[in-house]
Write a structure and sequence with these properties.
- The complex is a heterodimer of chains A (285) and B (249).
- Chain A is mostly helical and 285 residues long.
- Chain A is built from 8 helices and 1 strand; from the N terminus they run H-H-H-H-E-H-H-H-H.
- In chain A, helix 1 (10-22) runs antiparallel to helix 2.
- With 249 residues, chain B is mostly helical.
- The longest helix of chain B has 32 residues, at 210-241.
- The chains are: A mainly alpha (285), B mainly alpha (249).
- At the A-B interface, strand 1, helix 5, helix 7 and helix 8 of A face helix 2, strand 1, helix 4, helix 5 and helix 6 of B.
């Protein structure tokens, strides 16, 4: 439970705050001490509740600090009381930059009432902030339609994960991964195939010099893939605006898939063409 | 007078483990505030923001491919660690220890066969899911600014995934393994200028030999996963920094 949810014992809060202020403690420090004392007093009075929050007490606690702050505005020094700080800043604006020529000004005009400085500290004051209106960041983007990650997204991810895992366990229980006889460097199996994801390249070896099929084309694919975002500078993500990009990618993807499928299922002994339904499949994962 | 037993969920130890806002902490309420805290005060905050665009939940936008690839990586790590307990990457002339270990994993290790199957099928599936993930990202235009660099990181991850799968392919030390690797690496012998050096670097010799096995074992269980995890961290971090999920179309 967050700290600010803890209910406060209101009489203790008021009494402690008054005592601290009477001692001359800074208001913010005094409020902190009063809050701490009030929390402790509340917990002492309600041991049975433990860490559970008391719903009706929470708004009362939240209301306590502004009420206490506004109760003694005259006594508070201008720089420390939050309620007095706003006019002070406004006054500073009035002194430094007359706002008559500012067209976009939305804040209320300064009153020109400078707070009376406390006796003895007349030459001391703090300038809190001087912010021209155009310096304030305005949120222009709309919030958009957003949902909480917990529970919506996390549950979806968990289900996806569980389904995949269950499927894999079933599959792995039923179908064993291949393990052939022990490696023998003097006995070349026929056909010898690379792992399936390289069979597209192996298929290319049938048509090109190994330097082209094994080095040039793979390098070109990798570098080309990495360069995709720097080549395609079209900012739109709408399929209708991206016909060229989608067509090219689809053609290349299909090309790679078809080569891989041919290498996997249509190549037999001697890496010659075979029909999988006639001569059988020469493919192992 | 009955003494109230101390509740576990209110104990100091429990509260020290689960940060405020955790759904396992006492007092969790199904409110916007606690739902936000549940993510924000959780290690998950490294992966997910508090809120995502609603269209990102749609299964047909991402097909969960990136997340499932990550899940497969974790599953492969776990099953791989299990297999490492029973496997020695040795294959000298006296006897192929690696192959004997493979056989004993299948026959005498408790759950060994299931673990090996999960590892092998998971590896193939991960190559597939990473490739499909790349396709999904292309078709949704998710590589466009500001996500260009994350696409590049993704291409590196695809390459590392292939590398991990390929190095693992040799480890069973059966006929399937060494000849697939022989075919796959023979291409390196055609690289311009550095053919011999490239071959030697890959194989630790002129042909696939027991030295290759040790080399690829180290690559497979340590070197490549280490590099992959670093790129994964960058990949995930950039997803969040580049504005979360892309789209909608």
């Amino acid at each position: 439970m967050a700290r600010e949810d803890t209910p406060l014992d209101q009489p203790t809060f008021d009494a402690t705050l008054e005592a601290e202020l009477a001692k001359g403690t800074d208001r913010r420090v005094a409020e902190g001490r009063a809050r701490s004392a009030a929390v402790r007093a509340y917990k002492k009075a309600h041991p049975e509740e433990g860490a559970a929050p008391a719903a009706p007490a929470a708004p009362a606690a939240a209301a306590a600090s502004p009420a206490a702050a506004s109760a003694t505005p005259a006594a508070a020094p201008a720089a420390t009381a939050p309620t007095a700080a706003a006019p002070a800043a406004a006054a500073a604006v009035a002194v430094a930059a007359p706002p008559s020529t500012q067209p976009r000004r939305e804040a209320p005009l300064p009153t020109g009432n400078l707070p009376t400085p406390k006796k003895g500290v007349a030459d001391k004051h703090r300038l809190l902030a001087l912010v021209p209106p155009e310096g304030i960041q305005r949120v222009e983007r709309e919030q958009g339609d957003r949902v909480n990650v917990w529970p919506h997204l996390l549950i979806e991810e968990f289900i996806a994960m569980a389904v995949l895992f269950a499927g894999m366990v079933v599959f792995s229980t039923v179908i064993n991964a291949p393990l052939r006889e022990v490696a023998n460097a003097n006995l070349t199996p026929n056909p010898s195939k690379a792992p399936w994801y390289f069979l597209g390249l192996q298929e290319l070896l049938r048509y090109f010099h190994p330097l082209v099929a094994g080095i040039t084309i793979p390098t070109f694919i990798l570098v080309g893939l990495a360069a995709v975002p720097y080549i395609d500078r079209n900012p739109s993500v709408k399929p209708g605006d991206r016909k060229i990009a989608l067509t090219m990618f689809t053609i290349l993807f299909m090309f790679g898939s078809i080569l891989t499928i041919i290498g996997s299922f249509f190549r037999g002994p001697g890496y010659n063409w075979t029909w999988p339904w006639a001569q059988g499949v020469f493919f192992e994962l | 007078m009955a003494i109230k037993p101390p509740s576990l969920r209110e104990s100091e130890v429990w509260k020290s483990i689960f940060r405020p806002g955790s759904i396992y902490r006492k007092g969790y309420k199904d409110t916007s505030r606690d739902r936000a805290l549940a993510v924000m005060n959780n290690v998950l905050y490294h992966l997910h923001p508090v809120k995502v665009k609603r269209h990102g939940l749609k299964l047909t936008y991402t097909f969960c491919l990136g997340g499932l690839s990550f899940f497969l990586f974790i599953l492969l790590t776990l099953t791989g660690i299990f297999l490492m307990f029973f496997y020695r990457p040795m294959a000298d002339i006296g006897g192929a220890v690696a192959y004997q270990d493979m056989q004993s994993i299948r026959t005498s290790v408790f759950f060994g066969d299931l673990m090996r199957n999960l590892h092998r099928w998971g590896a193939h599936l991960m190559v597939l899911s990473v490739t499909l993930h790349m396709g999904r990202v292309f078709y949704t235009g998710a590589y466009k600014p500001p996500r260009e660099f994350n696409w590049v990181v993704g291409v590196v991850l695809l390459f590392l995934t292939l590398g991990l799968s390929f190095t693992g392919y040799l480890l069973p030390w059966d006929q399937l393994a060494i000849w697939a690797i022989t075919v796959g690496t023979s291409l390196a012998g055609y690289s311009p200028f550095i053919a011999k050096q490239a071959n030697f670097l890959l194989l630790g010799g002129a042909i696939v030999s027991p030295d290759t096995l040790l080399r690829w074992y180290v690559l497979h269980v340590l070197a490549l996963p280490f590099v992959l995890v670093i790129f994964l961290a960058v990949h995930f971090w950039r997803i969040r920094k580049d504005g979360g999920i892309s789209g909608p179309l």
